[in-house]
């Protein structure tokens, strides 16, 4: 993996050295001085169309834009003294990286609220993070910024230039005379939880968090193995994780800068969709295609879309959820290597290893944690299949601290409530199977994992998404979001596929045809920032319809039962998977 480290603590731009722990603004300034023409990113020349092609952003350009933000904040607010928090809401582009690094240089920390938050949740998030200033672009603003400005809370706003303007304005070098050891415990930026169980909560990434993640990226693998992340680094990567999501920030802010991976960005002003992504691919030379799992499921529905990806990328990377075997095979049959990564907003991407030669055809569905991660798997009781919860254990040596324990330094172990199952022939390989919150606890006392059932149906061209529920019931219920307006006979058309998916469930967990509910076109399933269906909020959205269905069709046992809430009680620690 390519890496360059630089001197610290000087007013002048840094020079190359061999220390490991670095401040990210220092690395950018060092790259601008030592390798000024190295390409950091490729961005579309337009917010809304790929027709104008892409432009290359070098480290000299990046450092210049970062200096522009630092000078602007110093002029408007003065140099920060206690790493005060500023919020940034902008287009989905590298402006987020520039804002985070520029604010860090000026002595501030950027909070990144999702623009998809409702106003009340965003206000609560700002308040919890002690954030009293908003950075955003000139009008027109998105709905969230409009609502914040109309709320009457008198939130101070600083207008900042677009990324195109920042890249086009020559700036003086903004000195950053700091050392890692002096700032390591200071906030670098803040992300937040998804808010599915209440108001979203801020998560602080310190400079130590970034350094710990970089050390994990560089952890050497054992003999005959490769570092799973290193396989896709120092390449050109088309990355679809949004920049206001921890996954996007992790890739573009930490991983790309530490490993000199060139990040190719989607359109900033248009929500990503499969057709627009395929359009962008036509103009790109890339090595790696990196996307949330739902995008791969969608792309796999059309051979021409598969071809558009596999003809340009040698590797496909997914995260955020499991991918069906059929979808994965569609990519591997085309000759590309598919890579499964696991991570979270608190723990960042978990270091993993991969055999240089896969022994099993389905190995891509599994991960093998690197020993550096210090992961254990604890068996879950009561499930209808063999399930284990992943648990992080804090490393003893301070210099080997994992990122998760820089976010939660008071903990000795962390339970993210994520479930895995071992490979049937290799107990070192683990497949992500969902969250413990996903399990359906029926009145039979059985715990049913709906993920495989849902994956089977999500590959259907007639379907956008499905969600199986039935907590506190005898009979399961299935929500189906149709792909188009032809919903009259939808249940009949997909029922043969539902019967096949039923084979993945125990006999007592199988779905009856009477308990399929098609969602309304004006109320699509609620989704996270990376596109995965949010289970609990969607069930709350359709709670009345589900209760009505049970009232009309019964609960499969012909016994009247008092209504039980259809969504799981998700009290406790909240986290968001990548």
UniProtKB/TrEMBL annotation:
Top-level taxon: Eukaryota
The UniProt entry, under Pfam families, shows: AMP-binding (PF00501), AMP-binding_C_3 (PF23562)
List the Gene3D superfamilies hit by this protein, alphabetically.
N-terminal domain of ligase-like
Q: Which residues form the AMP-dependent synthetase/ligase domain?
A: 52-351
Q: Does the keyword Phosphoprotein apply?
A: yes
PROSITE patterns attached to this UniProt entry: AMP_BINDING
Q: Which UniProt keywords apply?
A: Phosphopantetheine, Phosphoprotein
The protein's name: AMP-dependent synthetase/ligase domain-containing protein
Look up and give the organism this protein is from.
Answer: Zasmidium cellare ATCC 36951
